[in-house]
Design goal:
single chain, 768 residues, mainly alpha, two-stranded antiparallel sheet, two-stranded antiparallel ribbon
């Protein structure tokens, strides 16, 4: 690829990312640059991997993801290489220790393990086994021991909790999550004050054995800052279905309450949080970690009350106007220690590596907050989603879709009832935009559109099953309704709380009845088996009567049809098309997830099958990302190609679910999908007819590529690429800097991940 094309694409991506579109966000970005450049100009990366430097690098990596500054990435890479991708370096396991120690034998001490966070981040950008080999060796050895008190001081929760979730995400080894919970419970027994929601630094400081100078509880700001920030990082990577996820969510919110209750009017937290007189004055490290944690909770929907935003903004005001110095240094950082010390001097010249890293974390999260409404890519996606959905839902809400939709069918249409078009249109559209419509109302322009679409959708859902409505769908004739009823069920799965639960009891029962009646259809021996399993598993999730045989039979056949390396055959014979995208990966995962959600127990262990299916989907998403050319095109092959962007559904789904595999970052996936979407839906192409409905084609009006079953309702499957719109606007998927995707890197001479076979794990045995 010519360098000019790459430059133009990346420039377009940077401009479209909406970075720094407000004066304040520009100012904060400038602060980030000044602070980080100042630090790196005066400090070599060739330093040890102990906690103080490693904490800085957690902030540096966050700054890299936000800005895309390659110099900052290189700085962390050089640091990791200098340390041989290790923490403490002893190879004699018999000598490994986890009490306090700065020598190479303290391999199991958390202060030597925080470096693994950055190594994992670097691995995720360019996967090479040596980057996490030591991390896995150390942590997996640790988890094999009977000890469970590894995190005996509050700092350790920041140092190591995120290591556990990052390595779980990379390896899929559930033991990381099991031990995470076990170790935290032990930490809580040592130093957690449940009445305050806060942590003492360690057992020595627990009240009333230890008190501040005024007889109060002595909560050390940096110690609690470590924990709140660590919990935010953990929640970022915890799987949605993790058994103890709510434990961590509740702990995070409870701790945020405890933190904001002790904030000083000027915005900072004193070193002894509950007793400002114990060690009065400014302190930056704890304040920065608190501000980061609060902003992360706000940006990700955990902290919704105005009191949290007020506290975060006050914290940022202190950081930007008091802690930040004119020369780009970050002052008022309490020196290395473990407690608030009366009389200790902490002033503007009190600068440290870990304090700088904490400032970068807070500043980056503040930028995400400021730019949550200004992402050019998100604006394009949401505008396109609105353009596609508006004519459908506005008409169907009034019972006028049949009356007003301009229907187009394939030139070689097979003669079936054209009324199948309306169910195809509605079901496929809703399956794609359900996550977006599930976001809470937020008062933004996008939010207003979203609320309107949701309101129309709920009315349309009712009309779809109301026999007296002109838009009652074609449920009871033809075989095609089995397909598109599955997409309607999928929309309920993806928007359960926002789209299924608000429906009235009559409408819900009508759906249950219609879904049940579809058992009359004997699905062909292809991907159609998953349409049955999706519907039946949704019924199980909704508490209705379901057909276990249809579900388990589909699961067994899908397993038989897996060909390897992420691909499924469409039945007994392999077909080189995108049906692994359209149906197999998403509906197989959702079938298994529904059965897990419903708590159903059968011969098939749904949880173990899900874990393996997820691994396959992650591999397939790598394949899809590599298919996107530097110009934003992907190969056109196989049947049903007019489904357009639906070919990218698994990649979009992994982004939405927070399951992007190593080698795929938020910034590169968003840039790749956005460029492709723009290329496909360019204004000069006839993608829409005069009524605003989709036309038959791939990138414009191209009716000759239609199959015998294609109508323009079929094409609303393109909305399945919109799944990441279900992520908050402040999520890194939308706010991270645009990055070159794999083909851009490969054709421009940049390093890129090598591809390799992902061998399948052993098929789980039936329970009985």
């Amino acid at each position: 690829m010519k360098t000019g094309i790459l430059t133009a694409l990346l420039l377009a991506g940077a401009l479209c990312s909406g970075a720094a579109t407000t004066k304040e966000s520009k100012d904060v970005r400038a602060m980030i640059s000044k602070v980080n450049d100042t630090w790196q100009q005066h400090n070599s990366p060739e330093t040890w991997a102990f906690w103080d430097n490693a904490a800085y690098h957690t902030g540096n990596m966050e700054a890299y993801f936000l800005t895309g500054n390659e110099n900052w990435l290189d700085y962390s890479r050089r640091w990791a290489e200098h340390n041989q991708w290790k923490g403490a370096k002893s190879d004699n396991r018999a000598a490994w220790k986890y009490d306090y120690g700065e020598d190479d034998e303290h391999v199991l001490f958390g202060d030597w393990q925080i470096c693994f966070q950055t190594y994992a981040d670097l691995y995720n950008i360019l996967p090479e086994d040596h980057k996490i080999r030591r991390a896995r060796e150390v942590m997996e050895y640790e988890m094999s021991t009977p000890a469970n008190d590894y995190w005996w001081w509050s700092d350790g929760l920041y140092m190591v909790m995120p290591v556990m979730t990052k390595l779980h995400k990379i390896t899929g080894n559930r033991k990381y999550l099991d031990k995470l919970y076990e170790y935290v419970l032990v930490s809580d027994s040592i130093m957690y004050d449940a009445s305050e929601g806060l942590y003492y630094r360690d057992a020595k400081y627990v009240y009333p054995k230890h008190k501040s100078i005024n007889g109060k509880k002595d909560f050390w700001a940096r110690g609690d800052g470590w924990v709140l920030a660590g919990l935010a990082k953990v929640l970022k990577d915890l799987p949605e279905d993790y058994a103890h996820r709510k434990f961590f969510e509740d702990k995070f919110v409870r701790m945020a309450d405890g933190v904001i209750a002790l904030q000083q009017p000027e915005g900072h937290w004193t070193r002894s949080m509950a007793d400002p007189e114990h060690a009065p004055g400014y302190e930056t490290s704890g304040t920065a970690f608190f501000t980061y944690g609060l902003l992360w909770g706000i940006n990700n929907g955990y902290l919704t009350d105005a009191k949290y935003l007020d506290a975060a903004l006050k914290g940022w005001k202190y950081l930007s106007s008091v802690a930040l110095q004119k020369d780009g240094s970050v002052g008022y950082v309490q020196p290395i220690g473990e407690k608030a010390i009366p009389g200790q001097v902490v002033d503007r010249n009190s600068v440290s590596n870990f304090g700088t890293g904490a400032f970068l974390l807070a500043a980056c999260e503040y930028v995400r907050y400021l730019e949550r409404e200004s992402s050019g890519d998100r604006a394009f996606w949401s505008d396109l989603a609105w353009k596609i959905a508006h004519p459908v839902l506005s008409n169907m809400a009034e019972g006028k879709l049949r009356e007003n939709m301009q229907v187009e069918v394939s030139p070689n249409w097979d003669g079936r009832d054209k009324a199948v078009t309306y169910m195809e249109t509605f079901g496929r559209l809703m399956a794609g935009i359900a996550p977006w419509l599930s976001l809470p109302d937020d008062g933004t322009a996008e939010g207003s559109r979203r609320a309107q679409l949701r309101q129309w959708a709920l009315k349309a859902y009712a009309n779809a099953v109301d026999p007296d409505s002109p838009d009652y769908l074609l449920w009871r004739s033809e075989g095609q309704p089995l397909v598109d009823a599955a997409y309607i069920a999928e929309s309920f799965i993806r928007g359960y709380e926002a789209l299924w639960m608000p429906l009235d009891d009559t409408t819900k029962q009508r759906y249950i009845d219609e879904f049940t009646r579809l058992r009359r259809i004997d699905p062909p021996y292809t991907n159609w088996l998953l349409f049955s399993s999706t519907i039946e598993s949704f019924l199980a999730k909704a508490g209705a009567t379901y057909d276990e045989f249809r579900i388990n039979s589909a699961i067994r056949k899908v397993e038989e049809w897996y060909t390897g390396d992420g691909w499924y055959a469409d039945g007994p014979e392999f077909a080189f098309d995108y049906y692994s995208s359209y149906v197999f990966h998403p509906m197989y995962l959702e079938t298994l997830q529904n059965m897990k959600d419903a708590g159903k127990y059968s011969r098939i262990d749904y949880g173990r099958y899900y874990d393996r299916a997820l691994r396959r989907a992650r591999k397939y998403s790598i394949v899809l990302e590599r298919m996107i050319s530097p110009e934003g095109t992907f190969p056109v092959f196989g049947r049903s190609i007019p489904y357009r962007m639906a070919a990218m559904q698994p990649l979009a789904m992994m982004a939405w679910k927070g399951q992007l595999p190593e080698g795929l970052t938020h910034g590169q996936v968003r840039a790749a999908l956005s460029t492709t979407m723009r290329r496909m839906f360019a204004d000069d192409k006839e993608n829409f007819n005069d009524g605003g409905f989709l036309t038959i084609g791939f990138a414009g009006r191209q009716p000759n590529v239609a199959d015998w079953y294609t109508n323009n309702g079929s094409l609303y499957m393109t909305s399945l690429s919109f799944l990441p719109l279900g992520l908050p606007a402040s999520h890194p998927f939308w706010t991270d800097a645009a990055q070159p995707w794999t083909q851009c890197k490969a054709w421009s001479g940049k390093p890129f991940p090598k591809d390799h076979l992902w061998k399948d794990s052993k098929r789980p045995d039936d329970r009985f």
